[in-house]
């Protein structure tokens, strides 16, 4: 009997200890969980009160800096702090669409994802991860309709795209025609055209957010535009260069997004002329690298690369090697600049009655003429080859090209290692560019 009572007391004592342990365990999980609890709210308010705890382009703050400030203001949130850092690290490595879905987890998660610090951390990680890059295609099927649509796909399969995903145009536009200009930090600059109505659109393809930009004095149809980030003022700038055939002088305008108005840039370099021929010859895009825009110009019957620094708004010139532009007996020549692997590139496509040829050079040391190095040469013996434009460089050095052909009125994407004899299977006009998935909202930039 006595032994039975002892057993009952031992069982109750064990049950009581287990209950206390469960309570302590529950409290511990409450302390380290990301929720709307008191300590998490304290930290969130602490971040919102101090601008130094946010991060913007040009003024980055490390995790250690944030940790030190949080220890001073919120010493009791030490456990939550470590857990938050882990959550931020995990979320910063997740694709945009999945990250946006996680905003529904709690208000605190929503605040984390919306914070400029997190958005920039997410972008920085995406820039170093090639899997975060997507191919944006502006496509019109000539056999079916005459409307342009936007699609995105991975970069692993570009010749026969099986994973194309159609993107919806913003609710405020349904363009008959559209023209892609460039991408910067996950944002895409393009012109949308409906009859005589033309305007510039800044779009984030990953989130679907967009804004309509002010009109430059030059119509978007007759100009080529580029977008870059000016770290000296923490703002984005857009450059527009007029390409109208009737213009004798080259007109250049610049837009600062926060300023909201275009400014004409005077004193175009003396003796430098616009490349004549095809409307966008030498200027199918403006290459932005090392804080400057670049395009091809003609100086004393020699091709050269013009630069324009967006911080001090000063023109410059990057000379080419003689063998880069002296191509004779060609019926058609097209030059262009681009950026591959953060290097300035110069490409030439020429065609004569016997064959076509594409050459690509890279400048390994920016501004050093002697550092121009021939990256690849592609020859095509067919009568259909028209031109090629470099779009992207893979980690192994292979280059993605957009190729056009005579008499076909269509274009196709292929890599530098694929044969050029293959023609497009359907009449489709395509434009394309590579963009990085980003959470940056265009509306936050104005």
CATH architecture annotation of the largest domain: 6 Propeller
> What coarse outline follows from CA principal-axis ratios?
globular
Gap between N and C termini, in Å? 83 Å
The share of residues in helices is: 10-25%
Report the β-strand fraction as a percent range. Answer: 35-45%
Q: What's the CATH H-level superfamily name of the largest domain?
A: TolB, C-terminal domain
Low-confidence stretches: 15-77
Sheet with the most strands, sense and barrel status: 5 strands, antiparallel
Domain module count? 2
Give the class-level CATH name of the largest domain. Answer: Mainly Beta
Strand tally, please? Answer: 24
Indicate the mean pLDDT.
75
**C-alpha Rg, in Å?**
28 Å
Individual helix count: 8
Structural classification: alpha+beta
**CATH topology description of the largest domain:** Neuraminidase
